[in-house]
Amino acid sequence: VQEEKIFAGKVLRLHVCTMEGAEWLEEVPEDTTVEKLKERCLKHCLPGSLEDPKTVTHHKLIHATSEKVLTDTKTVLEENIQDRDVLLLIKKRAPPPLPKMADVSAEEKRKQEQKAPDKDAILKATANLPARSVDRTVAHHNMRDFQTELRKILVSLIEVAQKLLALNPDAVELFKKANAMLDEDEEDRVDEIALRQLTEMGFPESRAVKALRLNHMSVTQAMEWLIEHADDPSVDAPLPGQTPAEAPAEGAASSAEAAAGPSSEEGGEEAKDELTEIFKKIRRKREFRPDPRAVIALMEMGFDEKEVVDALRVNNNQQNAACEWLLGDRKPSPEDLDKGIDTNSPLFQAILENPVVQLGLTNPKTLLAFEDMLENPLNSTQWMNDPETGPVMLQISRIFQTLNRT
């Protein structure tokens, strides 16, 4: 018995197919290289083809199940080919012919013709056009101007809406419901399940609440924050810009008092007084809430907490813009945010004359939207997408843009 037969590897039976539909069975030892297997296949399906040495390199074997191209230098065993596997023998695609020099020159010429003009060419082409002075900062500040002006518009529209709604005999009942809805503000809620998970780990409840609010109710991030700040002496201090714990209870009591209200037997004057009180309570509930992370980051730069909160209020809770405001001329000032627009101005008159706005001002939800946007400008998108308040906001924006261009 020959030695090589004693130590020969396992023989595999492989099904080989070609693109032309030929199919046969190849029996090869598992230590056969893919290149040798390919030669055997070519001898079977293309007799005499091996006279050209390039024939082997111009073909490839593909494992049908995994769609993997087999490497010539590896063995059948190394390619993890199993008994009765199916292989495809395929001729490689010929590489595209190299372009002729004439074609390359024509392509380069075409690219040059399509190339954008340089600065000199633009100046030469526009030399005879009349010069215009364009303030490039106008476009940059248009959005900010609208946000600033929108606050003034909202302040004045709120006054108009309050007067209109006070004439509605059902206004008090409507706003009692609205007042109750505001008590369920999502932003003040803490995820009870997340809080329970943290307290069960041994963290104090007040500290866990703070961690969840700082980390957008993420249990994992809150836990990391609690571990990282475990030895921080200020870990239990209330978040900057937020009211102490006893304040919400006080607000809840006010809500209860407002909800109790006068009986239906009392006069209209007392109902109006009650409506005014409800408006005040709604405003207090919608007080601006600065982003705690932004407050901490800006205070670490050396700014006082009050001026940081003012900066964030003026700049819609945007940290970078607030930082620029603190380092700049600080305009507009926080006091400017509470000023209304000139009620005799063409802009305000055009807004009041719009039928969509007129109808919207009689809807209590519109007033709530105005109040919310006034103190939390980042919520504007929510109200723009609301089917009741969105059309009103769209008309205000269109009127502002139209008059701003004239």
Automatic annotation (TrEMBL):
UniProt xrefs under InterPro entries: STI1_HS-bd (IPR006636), UBA (IPR015940), UBA-like_sf (IPR009060), UBA1_UBAC1 (IPR041926), UBA2_UBAC1 (IPR041927), UBAC1 (IPR052476), Ubiquitin-like_domsf (IPR029071), UBL_UBAC1 (IPR057650)
GO CC terms in record: cytoplasm; ubiquitin ligase complex
Pathway info: Protein modification; protein ubiquitination
Biased composition regions of type Basic and acidic residues, renumbered to the chain: 106-117
GO biological process: protein ubiquitination
Domain named UBA: residues: 183-229, 289-329
Region described as Disordered: 98-117, 232-272
Record keywords: Cytoplasm, Repeat, Ubl conjugation pathway
Biased composition (Low complexity): 244-265
Record bears the keyword Isomerase: no
SMART domains the UniProt entry points to: STI1, UBA
Subcellular locations according to the entry: Cytoplasm
Coiled coil: none
Main location: cytoplasm
PANTHER family, per database record: UBIQUITIN-ASSOCIATED DOMAIN-CONTAINING PROTEIN 1 (PTHR46738:SF1)
Protein name, per record: Ubiquitin-associated domain-containing protein 1
Organism: Pardalotus punctatus
Organism lineage string: Eukaryota, Metazoa, Chordata, Craniata, Vertebrata
